[in-house]
Amino acid sequence: MKKWVPIASGLLAGFIAATISFADFSSKTDTQTASAGNKSDAEKVYVPFGKKDDYYLFASGGHSGQMFIYGVPSMRKIRTIPVFSQDSATGYGFDEHSKKLMGGYTWGDLHHPAFSEKNGDYDGKWMFATDVGNSRAAVVDLKTFTTKDIIKVPNTAGPHCAAFVTENTEYMFLPTRFAVPLGQKYESLDDYSSKYRGVMSAVTFDEKKVKLNIAYQVALPPWSYDLSDAGKKGSKDWAVMTTYNTEEATTTMEVNASQADRDYIVLFNWKELEKMVKEGKYEDVGGQKMIFPEKQKGGIYLVPVAKSPHGVDVTPDGNYFIASGKLAPAMTVFSFEKAFKAVENKEFAGERNGIPILKYESVMEREVNPENALGPLHTQFDDKGMAYTTMFISSEIVKWDPNTGKTLDRVPVQYSPGHSVAAEGDTVAPDGKWIIALNKIAKDTYLSVGPSHPESMQLIDLSGEKMKVVQSAPVDPEPHYAQMIKADKIKTIEVYQKDSKNKDAVYNQKDTKIVRKGNEVHVYGIAMRSRFIFDAKSKRPDVIEVNEGDHVFIHLTNIDFDEDITHGFAINDYDLNMEVQPGQTNTLEFTADKAGTFPLYCTNFCSALHQEMNGYFLVKPK
Ligand code: RUQ
Ligand code: CUA
After folding, report:
1. Which residues sit opposite 333 in a β-bridge?
2. Among the atoms of ligand 1, which is closest to the Cα of residue 112?
3. Residue with the nearest Cα to atom 1 of ligand 1?
4. Which ligand is in closest contact with the Cα of 111?
5. Which key words are in the record (predicted)?
6. Same domain (yes/no): 474, 515
7. Domain check: are 523 and 485 in the same one?
8. Which of 270, 456, 461, 565 has its CA 20 to 30 A from that of 541?
């Protein structure tokens, strides 16, 4: 293996400089703006009124805890889906169902959205995501664009690597970004190497019950696990993930976690791990089935890679996995076939923590080092199997051929792209056509909004001989990753169907009622254009009266079975708001701890008489 040190230390300086100084960027601005500004480019992205976009883009909202939906090629933002953070626009995190899903947390850090897959193709049914901030995983239903389940992932601190699903959505693998002791209990950092672990969770999704589950966990060495990808076709039983801090540093990571010449890619066979679990080869750790690789041998290998790798991406044909080193100016192409042979022939170069290290030379196919391209992070693919790697430091996307290593084209972007996303890019058959650079820095691109600028997404046309930036759209923090799916694969519903089994639902005005049980008050109400009916028999059907200290449940059903007629329900000064979409039933639960008179009203504009859609919430003092 080559010595990376001299280049890498220079790059480390470059990496740091790139994040604090933009002087070197200014010179690029004119040419780039010019290249993205002519009429024929505008026509390519113009989607006239009445016409719809060809693709949906699901972009991670980073520490907003949300997911942003855009149309491509127009790059118009269509929707925000709250996943890990409260959102008063939809009442997410306020109503009972979503409050429970959020598990007492108020925010999340959503990094990598991933569609469910069937035979390696996006099936358009579900979208998964993980939360680095509070260690959770979530699933979004693409029939309604709403979050349906969230689970907490124990023994894991920040599942950054995920979510990447296997070919038939058998698993998502969620390794920890930060090593912690099992159970996250207190252990001195002096005992880091012996007491801390980098736990990976194998998460399954039960489509019928709409539930995420942890099938088993693996107690990997106490390193940071960064990105992962699942194998495809011939490599479909395997998955890969990058690691850094194999130095096991416990402080000043910026320097100490970049010491060693090499880190590793963890290569594992999930079918073998699954078998181990079936055979009872695990230990119970706080209710989780934990595989300890130093005791239960097999299924997991380490592949040496240039220091501090970030992205690792599997080619659509499933033949290669490509690692990008943020501190080394190279992409390394590894061959699955070679790796399988090396495993079979035990071509090992020692082990760490009981995990065999495959010989670098045995697995490496080629090192690719485009001239002056710096800071390779992530790779996407087109319909011809060509690779597109984002260069964080030299602010460009480089197109190259994984089979030869030859550089084919380069295009500058503004600036510092993290990921890029290609149309149907993570499937076994990407579409080509479009790739979008997800830029961390958009300095000078949009109208100023003060010292902190928006991030940007730049749409790049792949149809011509040369890549061409044709559109740019601002995006809220922070576009870590995105996936792009053909629009016709997504089948949304128009209204929620009546659910006769739902005890909270009321579909007839005459069935509305307010029921008191001790100090519990249950309201079974209706929202319709343009009134609330909480109790049709009452003198004032749109008024709720309770006593101070009562525990109140407001169940509200929207009986306008009419597309897009959504109602909101807010109680003034009670810090409460929820949404009821057409046909939907939703519940607010709270304690009436403030006595007084509080108007309630519909927050979602629903008719010409929306402004009249209100009533009172009266709380009689004790
Ligand atoms: S990361 S900029 Cu959170 Cu995917 Cu690489
Ligand atoms: Cu209902 Cu506005």
Report:
1. 322, 366
2. 4
3. 480
4. 1
5. Copper, Metal-binding, Periplasm, Signal
6. no
7. no
8. 565
* pLDDT tens-digit series, residues 513-530: 999 999 999 999 999 999
Task: Give the Cα separation of 422 and 424 in Å (integer).
Answer: 6
Q: Tens digits of per-residue pLDDT, 272-330?
A: 999 999 999 999 999 999 999 999 999 999 999 988 899 999 999 999 999 998 777 89
For residue 324, the ligand closest to its alpha carbon is: 1
Give me the amino acid identity at 218.
V
* Bridge-based pairing state of the strands 387-391 and 376-381: antiparallel
- Asked if residue 293 has a cis previous peptide bond (ω within 30° of 0), the answer is no
Whether 73 and 215 map to the same domain: the answer is yes
Cα 266 to ligand 1 centre (Å): 18
Q: Which ligand has the shortest distance to the CA of 603?
A: 2
Q: How far is the CA of 419 from the centre of ligand 1 (A)?
A: 6
The residue out of 489, 524, 541 marking a domain boundary is: 489
CATH of the domain at 522: 2.60.40.420
| Domain identity same for 210 and 296 | yes
| Total tally of structural domains belonging to the chain | 2
pLDDT at residue number 478: 86
Return d(Cα 219, Cα 217) in angstroms, integer: 7
Q: What is the CATH number of the domain that holds 271?
A: 2.130.10.10
Best mutation site among 63, 131, 377 for ligand 1 pocket (most ligand atoms within 8 Å of CB): 377
Amino acid at 250: T
Q: For residue 331, give the H/E element and its range.
A: strand 331-335
Instruction: Name the pTM for this structure.
Output: 0.93
- Centre of ligand 2 from the C-alpha of residue 594, in Å: 25
